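Data availability excerpt. The first of two example chains:
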Amino acid sequence: MSTVAVIVVWWIAFGGTHTLLASRSLRPQLVARLGAGPFLGVYSIVSFLTFVPLVRAYLSDRHSGDLLLPLASLPGVHTIALLVAWASFATAIGGLFQPSALSMMGGEVVEARGLGRITRHPLFMSLAVWALAHLLVNGFATDLAFFGGFVVYSVLGCAHQDARKREAEGARLTGYFAETSLLPFVAIATGRNRIVVAELPWLGLAVGAALSTALYLAHPWMFGS
C-alpha cells in the first residue's frame, strides 16, 4: 500500500471514529453506560491511537509522490504561506482561550463574540487555514493527503457538529446560527456580523503568537525544513 493510501486510511479511521463517537445515536448511550469522564477518556484514547499512526505515516515519507501543487516556486508564495501559517496557529491557540459558544451548556443564551464572530469554530477553522498554508509550499502527493486531510476533517467535522447542535437545540441556537458562519469571515463579509476588537482573546493570541514563533524557529530542527 502506498504512503498516500496509508495516510488516507488513517484519516478515515480518525475522522470516522470521531464522527461515530460524537453522534447523537451513540454518544448518549456510551455516556449513560460509562459516565461522562470515562467516555471522554475512551474518546481521547481512540483519538490518540488513530492520529499518531497518521502523523508517523506522513513523517516517514513526506514530500514524496507526484508534485500536484507546484506553487512553491512562485514569487511571494513562501512568504504568504509563512505569515498565514504563523497567524492561523496563533489564532488556533487563541481559540482554546475562547472556546466556541456551541460548547456552552444548554439553557444559556448563546451569542457571537470575539473569535466567534469570525467563525463558529475558531480552533478547527484555524487549523484548516494552517493546513492550507502548508499546501502552498508542500505540493507533493503525501503532503496533499496529509494537510488536505486537515482541511477536509476540519470542515466536515465542524459541519457535523453544527448539524448535531441544530437538531438537538435548534430553538436555542437559531439566532446564533443566523449571525455566524462556519467558514471564516463569511458572516462578516455578508454583513451579518462584525469584528469587535475588545472581545478578542488577546492573552490567548499573545500566547499563540509566542508558541507559533517558537515552532517556526524549531521547525528546521524538528522536521528538517
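And the second chain:
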Amino acid sequence: MVNKVENESKMKLRNLLKELFQFENADLDFGIYRIMNFKKEQIAKFIDKDLIEEIAKQLNLLAEEEKQALRKDIGDLKRKIQEAFGEDAFKGEELRDEFKATPLGKKYEEKRQELERVRVSEGLERDVYNHIYSFFSRYYDNGDFLCKRRYAKKSRYVVPYNGEETLLYWANKDQYYVKSSEYFRKFSFKVGDLKVNFRVAEVGEETGNLKAEEKKFFVLNQEKIWDFNDSKNEMNIYFDFRSLSDAEKEKFGERVRQEDLNKFILEIIAKELANQRKFQSLFEKQGEKTIFEMQLNKYTKRNTMDYFIHKDLKGFLEQELDFYIKNEVLNLEDMETIDKEKLGIYLLEAQVIRNISLKIIDFLAHIENFQKKIWKKKKFIIRTDYVITLNKIKEYAGKEFLESIVDEIMKNGKQLEEWKNLLKVELKSKKDLTEKLPLDTRHFGAEFKYKLLEKLSERNDLDKILNGILIKSENWQALNLILGKFREKIQCIYIDPPFNTGTNEFLYKNNYLDSCWVTMMYDRLEMGKKLLRPDGSIYVRIDYHGNHYVRMLMDSIFGKDKFRNEAIVNRTIRLKSEGKKFYTAQDSIFFYVKSDDYYFKDVRIEEPYEIEIKLAKNIDCKKLVEVLSASFVDCDVKIQKDRLLLRNQKWVEMHASSDSEDNPPRVFFGKEIPPPRKRRWMWNQEAIDRMIEKGWIRINPEIGLPEMLRTWRHVGSDWMDIKGYAQSWGFPTENSEELIQRILEASSKEGDWILDYFLGSGTTTAVAQKLGRKWIGVEMGEFFDNIPLRRMKIVLAGHRSGISKEIDYEGGGFFKYHYVEQYEDALENIEFEQKRLPEFEDYFIKYMLDFETKNSKTFLNIYEAEDPFNYKLSIIENCEPKVVNVDLVETFNYLIGLTVSQYKVLNNNERKYIFVCGEVDGKKALVVWRSIKDIDFEEDKKVISKAIADFNPEEIYVNGDCIVKGFKQIENEFKTLLFRD
C-alpha cells in the first residue's frame, strides 16, 4: 500500500512536469515545440531519473535492496539476543531496557533507529512529491503561469501591495501578451515518417482592431481539401478561417462552437482518406481520440487563444515558493504546537521541497527566458519600399532624372496595373503621366530603388523629405524596433485599440478576458510613453467595455496628474434597439500628457454669430418676430420653445462692453469707428483685422455700422458635434478625419511626428499627411496592403475626401513602408548546434539554449552575413512558408538610431557598396555595407577611404573585416543592439 501511494505521488508529479514541459506536443514540428522536442530526451531524463534520485539523496533514502538487508540484519540480531538472554529479552519488537546497554543490544537499537529514519523519510518523500505538485499546479493554466497569489490555506488571493492609495492589478501583470501578425501560422506534426501540415487557404478579412462582430471559424476549404507531396512524404490539409455562410448557420445552428465543426471536419477527412492506406496511421487512437482529432483540436484552439511570456518567471516562482513553504509546509501559525522532536523533520521536509522546486524552477525559467529573449529581440526588417509621387521626384531629384526613368515606368506593367486599379488611370503614352501619380518601388526592384534614393538624397536629407512610415507588424515588435531611432521624438500619439467585448474583437485565454486585454494594453502604452517627446500628448479611444481600465492604466503609466480630459465622441447611430437599455451613443477619448510642459493649441469652432433671449410667458411670438425683424437689419430670427435666437445682431449692440470709459476707435475696412458713448470694443485691432480677413465682419449698408457674421466657440470635452466614425473605406471602425484633425491641430504642429500603432483603416496617417505632419502607422495582418497602404497611395494622389476640400489639400508626398519579422518567424529560424560541455556544472540548465542557438539566423549569423545583400530568413507569408532576403541595411539604421541624410551606391569591380550617411546621437556617421566574400582588402580600403574623405564622419560602421582605421564592426554592434532595451 505504501509503495502504491508513493508511486501515485511520483506519477502525479511526473505527469504535471511533462505537461509543463509540453510533452503532449512532442509530435509538433514548429516554433517553441520544436525547441522543446530538441531537448525532450534531456528533460525526460531530468523528470524520470535525476529528480527522483535527487529527492532520495536529500532525504537519505535507501534503495529497496539496502532496506531488505537492514531488515535481515535486525532479524539476525534479534535471534542472537534471544539466544543469549532468552525469549523474554523482547517485549514485542521492543528490547527491554536492561539489555540495551549490551554490545548486541546497542547494535540492535542502532539498526532499529536507522530503519525508523527510512520509514519517516518515505513518508516525507510522499509529502515532498505532493507539495511540489500542489505548488506548481496552482499557478499553471494551459501553458502559462498566472500570478495567483494566495493566503495560507485559504481560497482568497493576495497581490503585492506597497501602501498605494489605489492599485490596479491583474492576473497577467508580470507577463508579455504575445500576438503574432498572423493568427494562422504554420502548424505541422509527424506521425512516423509522415509529415502533416495544416494550412489556411483563405482568411476572412481581419483588422488590427478586430472589431468585426461576426465570429469566425475554421472550416475545410471548399476548392481543395488536401494534397500530398510523394517525394517529401508530406501532406497538406487546407482550411478557411471565416464567418459562416447563411446555409452553414442553418445547418449547424446559431450557437455552433468550433468543437462542433471539428466533428464535421473529422467525418469529411475520414471519408476523403478512407481508401488511402498510407494515411491510416492518422486515425489510430491514442487514448479516447485519434491522432488526427487530437491535432485538429490543438490547431483550432491554438489559433483562437492568446498566450503569454513571463517577464521574470524565476523571480516570481521563487518568491511564491518561499510564501508557500512558510504557510503551507511549515504553517507558522501551528509551530508552537509542534513536538520539538518532530521540528527537525518539518525543517528537513521544507528544505528538500525548496531545493527540488528550485531545480524545477531553473528548468522552467530557462525555457521561459529563452522565449522572452526571442520576443524582446528587435526584429529584422524583411522588406523596405518607398512610395513617392512623380512631382516629388521632380522636385527632389530634378526634372532630368524624372525624364530619365519615364521609359522604365511606362514599361512596368505592375505599376501601370496598380494605377489603373487604384486610381482609375489608364496610361497609354508618356503624355498621360500626371504629377500626383504615386510610384511604388516594390514594382521595380532593388537596383531602381537605390538609384532613386541616391538621386533624391543628393541635394536633400532623406529623412527630412520623408513624410511618413508604414509598418506591417505586431505593434509591440514594431515599437520595440523603432525605439532606438524615435525615442522621445513623437509629438502626438492617437490609438483606437481593440475593445475587449469578448466576441471576435479580442481573442483571450479562458476566463481571463479582462486580464489579457489589460496586459496587452499596458506594455503598448508603456512603450508609447518611451517614444513620446517630453512635450508630447497621447489620446486613447475606447468604449464602455474598457474605459475604466484605460483610465487606471494611463494613471499608472503616465501619472494621475498627467490626465487632461475625457472627451466623448459619437459612435455610429444605431437604428435597432440594444435590448432593455439605451443604445450606446458615444465612446471615450482619454487625453494624457507626458509632462506639465506640453504643447497644446486651443481649438475653436467657427459658427454663425448668435445671441439668445429667454421668452416671457404668454408672449405673442408672431408679433415679436415682426418687431425684431423690423428693428434689426439682416437679423435671422428663430423661436425654439421658450427661447429666441438672433443671428447676425448689430455689432454695436453686441460687441461693445460697458465696463470702462476707455473707448478708442477701431478701424473697419479703412474707416475708424468709435464705440457707443461710455463703452469700448470687445476685441483689439489685431483680432478685428483677422476676423475681417476671414470674412466674419461686414459693414451693414443700412446703418453704416459693422456687424458680426460669424464667430467661434472654444471646444470642450463634448465632441458630439463631429462624426466619430466614417464609412469611406469599407472598414468597420474607421475613424472620421474630422476627429483626428481636431486632435492633431490641438497637440502638434506642422513637421511634428505623429504615431498610431493600432492604425486600422489609416485615418490617422491620412490626416497627418494632409495637415503637414510626419507620421508612423503600424498594423498587422494581410489587410495592411489592401487598406492603409492602399489608402495612403490614394491620399498622395490628392483624392478629395475627408478634410481635403476643407483644407484645400492637393496631394503629393513621399513615404516608406516596412514588413517586419515576427515572433513566430524568429522561432522558425532557431538553429541548434549539438555540443556538450560536461566540464560546466549544470550545463544543461544554464547554457542549453543560449549557447546552442547563438549562431541562429534570427540572432544574426555572422558567416551568413558575409554577403549582407543576400541574408535570408524563413517566414510565413500569406499563411505559407517562404524564404526571403532581409533588409539588414534598414534594420541597422533603426538599431543605431541613424537619421539618414544620404544614400550612395557604388559598384567597384562588380562589388556593390552601399554607403548610408547621417547622424547618430548628434554625431555624423557613415555606415558601409558590401560583400566580403573573396574581397581584396587593399582595394576595399581605397573605396571606403574616399567615402570617408567625402563625408568626414565622426563615427564609421563597416560590416565584416576591414583595414580602415577607427571603424566599428557592424556585426558586433548589431548583435548587441538586438537585445538592448
